[in-house]
Amino acid sequence: MLCLNKNPIDCFFPVYKEMVSSFHAGGNDIGMNSRSSLHVLEGTERLIKEELVRCIWFGQHLKRACLCTDNGSRLEILSPGWWNSEGGPDFKHAEFLLEGKGLVKGDIEVHVFSSDWIRHQHHKQSTYDTVCLHVALWNDNHGAYMKNHRGQTIPQLTLSKYLDAELDELVELIDVESYLKGKKVNPGYCQTEMENQKVNDQWIGRFLDYAGDERILQKAKRYERWLEKGTFEQVLYEAVMESLGYKNNKEPFFTLASRLPLEDIRYVIPEDASAQKKKKNMQSLLLGMAGLLPQQRNKKPTDDKETANYINDIEHAWNEIQKKINRDPLTKNDWSYAGIRPANFPERRIAAIANILSECSSLSIFRYLLSVLEKVENYQEERKIIKRLVEDIQSIFLGISDSYWSYHYTWYGKKLAKPVKLLGKERASNIFINVIIPILLIYARKHSNTKIEKVLHLTYRNYTPLPDTSVTKFMGNRIFGQPNVSKKIINSVRRQQGLYQIFKDFCENDNMSCNKCALYLSMVKD
DNA sequence: CGGTCAAATATCTTTCGGCC
DNA sequence: GGCCGAAAGATATTTGACCG
């Protein structure tokens, strides 16, 4: 078993990454795929899984206007087809227009590498004769097409040339969790090996700790790229906004934040206005730019005076503000309401961020964070540091109250008997872990401030786990089998985040990568 | 048009831990 | 060891979009 005792424990240290690369150095990997996705990495350091490529294809995250097959024919996708959960091609009943052929209907097979077509033996299987387009993320054999079992030519599309965002951004945006639903979880090699070797709780805990640190480091890396184009406060604002999109609205929230940078907001909303006026203007600015005001949608009459007054106020303010902004607002179609509980509709979250911004001096959440850090650094007791840091930072999210939105879920929605928070504890925790810690970590390192890093790490490793998700449940089953064992060991967000990291790196393909998993290999190593 | 579903907060219950 | 307050855990409640 790999010794994990010698590494530093009070800061974010890339122990996990070193372990992973030690197992995969040299390229002589074991397993069925002679060349795994580990070795060809363009534009991302993550391991790209076929499931992700399927999601890219199904979600059509492509520059659709200029698609060409690998032999140069113009291609227009009418329908990406429907998921096929049984054997055979990945998507059924797709439709597209192909130059020289016209309308084509048929099935689609998706791979990470174009050469996977032959490696998976599809050119010898008649079940793949219905495939009319082969879609690969990367074209590694530089061919222009594939052949099926009857020798017919299948046109091929290479996605990497047409992605509508950086690959690592897509990795963040695409929900790879949903496919886990309903599948039964098989124990991993890790679980079997743990029983064989009687791996103790401390060892596995430590491993998860380091994996959890790696997750923060990777998030930090992502934000570091954003920082090339913006200031800390702008990046923090964008990241918080993205986080407010929960799962389905990350994209429009992020777009809103980049179309409406803090600088522009400051230009439109004077610092010296009264608190109330600032709040109202901020709401109308953000909601207006989001395209979510009632006037921008279907206007319904109401006999509720309070609602009518509020809407009137906000829309009036927007009509004035709109003149000073020369960028187009988003529209209702940019937002997704599917599968979102009314309490978390985008309108409410936008109202929330508007209230937060208008209450921060100079609209800077970042500056507020720094002031909290400064205060906390001087405390002696560790417990007190942890408590105050979390409480003070989260108070700006939890403490929001709004005369309208605290009592309503929607425009014209019925008035709630009791006020409901615009952002709750869970969201605040999420923002704290996924956004604030990574960004402050970058800041600490840029300023060589190890004290801040230590405070962040201290808080991180003492923070209780967030509620379970499909991924944490899956991983709990996969590694520990019994939920009570899992619960005992996963006693911090740090370890919980470690589960996500290992999942992303190794388990996403179900059983495929168990033999390459760093957790398993660390156990069997002598 | 009505059943189903989505996920957060509010509230109630149990456990934990510190302290005398 | 027992008491009290705090934290953690479990359960109930909530509205409106979507799909057939």
What is the topological layout?
Blueprint: H1 15-24, H2 50-59, E1 75-79, E2 82-83, E3 91-98, E4 102-113, H3 116-119, E5 131-138, E6 145-147, E7 153-158, H4 167-173, H5 189-197, H6 201-227, H7 232-244, H8 250-259, H9 262-268, H10 275-290, H11 305-322, H12 346-359, H13 365-377, H14 382-398, H15 425-446, H16 450-462, H17 470-480, H18 483-489, H19 493-507, H20 518-524
Parallel strand pairs: 4-5, 5-7
Antiparallel strand pairs: 1-3, 2-3, 3-4, 6-7
Helix pairs in contact: 5-20, 6-15, 6-19, 7-8, 7-15, 10-11, 10-12, 13-14, 14-15, 14-16, 15-16, 17-18, 17-19
The protein binds a DNA duplex (20 and 20 nucleotides) through residues 246, 337-345, 409-410, 413-414, 416, 418, 420-421, 424-427, 464, 467.
InterPro entries: DUF2851
Pfam families: DUF2851 (PF11013)
Protein name: DUF2851 family protein
Concise summary:
The chain contains 20 helices and seven strands. The chain is of the alpha/beta class and 526 residues long. The chain starts with 14 loop residues before the first helix and ends with a helix.
Q: Helix-strand pattern, N to C?
A: HHEEEEHEEEHHHHHHHHHHHHHHHHH
Largest sheet: 7 strands, mixed
Helix/strand structural class = alpha/beta
Gap between N and C termini, in Å?
5 Å
Name the helicity range. Answer: 40-55%
Low-confidence runs: 26-46, 177-184
> Averaged pLDDT, please?
81
| Large-scale geometry | globular
Query: What oligomerization state is this entry in?
Result: single chain
- Give the count of helical stretches: 20
Radius of gyration: 25 Å
As a percent range, the share of strand residues is: 5-15%
Beta strand count? 7
InterPro entries: DUF2851 (IPR021272)
Organism: Candidatus Brocadia sinica JPN1
Pfam families: DUF2851
Protein name: DUF2851 family protein
